[in-house]
C-alpha cells in the first residue's frame, strides 16, 4: 500500500547545499512561499542537516562527505539539484539514492518535487522497516521450533496441532507467530496451553 501523499509542508525546514549564493537565495524564497524555512549552506552543514526535514544537494558539486549518513540511507527526503546532467555526477546522485530531482532551470516546480520526495522517502523507510522486521522474525525461527516442540511434548500432540495452538496464541495476543512463541517459552504457568485451544 502506498503511503498517503504529504501535501502541506508549512513549518518544515530545508537545508540547501549549493555553492552559489544566488541559487540558495532563490530556492529559499520559493520554499518560504510554501511555508518552509530554507537555509543555504556551503560547503558543509552536517549539524543543520541533522535537524532538517528536507535536504537539497547540488548534484554537480556535492560529495559523500557532505552527507552525514551512509549513501542511500537518508532519514529525510533528499532532493538533487540538477544543472549540467553529466553522466558521472548523475551516477553519484543515483548512488546517493535521492528521492527526487529538481532542475535548477525550473525552481517553480519545487512543490511537486517536495511531494514526490516525501512520498519516495516514506516508501523507502517503510521498505527498510519491513525488511528489518522480516530479518528479525527469521532470526527467531529457532524460538518457533522450540515452542512447537514444547507444546508437542506437554500436550502429546503432533507438530500441526502444536502449530495451530501457537497460531491461536498469536491471534489472541495480536503478535507475530515468532513473538508468540517467545512468549510461550517465557511463560511458566502449567495451564498456559489450555486457554489457547
TrEMBL record:
Q: Which InterPro entries match?
A: AmiR_N, ANTAR, CheY-like_superfamily, WH-like_DNA-bd_sf
Q: Which GO terms describe its molecular function?
A: RNA binding
Q: Where is each ANTAR domain found?
A: 124-185
Entry superkingdom? Bacteria
Q: Protein name, please?
A: Two-component response regulator, AmiR/NasT family, consists of REC and RNA-binding antiterminator (ANTAR) domains
Q: Which organism is it from?
A: Tropicimonas isoalkanivorans
Amino acid at each position: 500500500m502506498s503511503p498517503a501523499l504529504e501535501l502541506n509542508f508549512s513549518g518544515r525546514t530545508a537545508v540547501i547545499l549549493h555553492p552559489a549564493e544566488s541559487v540558495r537565495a532563490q530556492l529559499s524564497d520559493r520554499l518560504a512561499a510554501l511555508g518552509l524555512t530554507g537555509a543555504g549552506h556551503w560547503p558543509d552543514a552536517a549539524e543543520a542537516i541533522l535537524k532538517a526535514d528536507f535536504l537539497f544537494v547540488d548534484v554537480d558539486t556535492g560529495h559523500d562527505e557532505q552527507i552525514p549518513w551512509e549513501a542511500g540511507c537518508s532519514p529525510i527526503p533528499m532532493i538533487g539539484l540538477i544543472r549540467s546532467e553529466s553522466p558521472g555526477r548523475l551516477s553519484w546522485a543515483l548512488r546517493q539514492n535521492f528521492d527526487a530531482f529538481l532542475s535548477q532551470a525550473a525552481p517553480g516546480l519545487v512543490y511537486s518535487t517536495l511531494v514526490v520526495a516525501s512520498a519516495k522517502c516514506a516508501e523507502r523507510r517503510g521498505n527498510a522497516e519491513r525488511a528489518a522486521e522480516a530479518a528479525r522474525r527469521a532470526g527467531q525461527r529457532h524460538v518457533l521450533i522450540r515452542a512447537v516442540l514444547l507444546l508437542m511434548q506437554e500436550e502429546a500432540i503432533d507438530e500441526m496441532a502444536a502449530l495451530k495452538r501457537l497460531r491461536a496464541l498469536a491471534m489472541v495476543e495480536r503478535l507475530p507467530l515468532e513473538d508468540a512463541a517467545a512468549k510461550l517459552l517465557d511463560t511458566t504457568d502449567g495451564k498456559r496451553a489450555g486457554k489457547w485451544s
